[in-house]
Amino acid sequence: MTPFDYDYLRKLLKERSGLLLTADKQYLIESRLLPLARRAGLAGIGDLVQAIRNGSDAILVEVVEAMTTNETFFFRDKIPFDHVRHTVLPELLRARESRRSLRIWCAAASTGQEPYSLAMILKDMLPAGWRAEIVATDLSNEVLEKARTGVYSQFEVQRGLPIQLLMKHFTQLGDVWQLNPDIRAMVQYRQLNLLHDFAHLGKFDIIFCRNVLIYFDQATKADVFGRMQRVSEADGCLFLGAAETVVGLTDAYRARPDLRGVYVPNGARPALSLVPPMMAGVHRGVAMG
Predict the structure, then answer these.
(1) What is the pTM (predicted TM-score) of this model?
(2) How many C-beta atoms surround the C-beta of residue 20 within 10 A?
(3) Which of 111, 192, 204, 109 lies closest to 149 in space, CA to CA?
(4) Which of 89, 92, 135, 254 has its CA 20 to 30 A from that of 60?
């Protein structure tokens, strides 16, 4: 791959997905895009770049999806889910008693383990007569299709999923496990790109946006946080990954001191986005190797 091709792909990925690649990540592009080029019958990344320049939308979509990873597992990092179970959900059950409904957005759904982890918590804790809606979004149609099936390998269910929940909420189908229909029905999957407007999703009591914005530049992060605040309920909360923060980026949220990784909306609404709309799609977390 020539420096010219690398520079072109860096700019393309920043524009289309928000991914900010540093100058030392050429190996990452090569490791992820060379297999894609070969599957497409192309000699290498140079030909891949030329196909994009020639207007191949299919190749463009595959390149963006190949460069955003799907690292996820059930109850990942544990602490955020403990916060939901022991503090945030009990508070919301008291605050929402009059309407008896909750809405949660997972903005990095990947193959579904995060929203399904939340669905299992809600299934166990929600009182009779309550309604819960989990909206799960991602950039890739491919991972969303897998998520909708609720089918996971033995390896996938062994990563973070307590055995009692496996026995309670899954059915074994040969060498794989499938979530039961009642849990799958609690999650709505939609394709969405965080760089685009998401006001149409409505208001949420809880937003999970974990390990999504790590490799975005500061202006893009601030823009996304500002727009997330506008779809957050005033007493709602935002969950970020362990390496993420709003500090120094935005005044749309402030840290909740008693819950690490949890942020609450500030009273004043931020100004409208200054970041122009870009490629349509759903966003997921980005992890660099």
Answers:
(1) 0.79
(2) 18
(3) 111
(4) 135
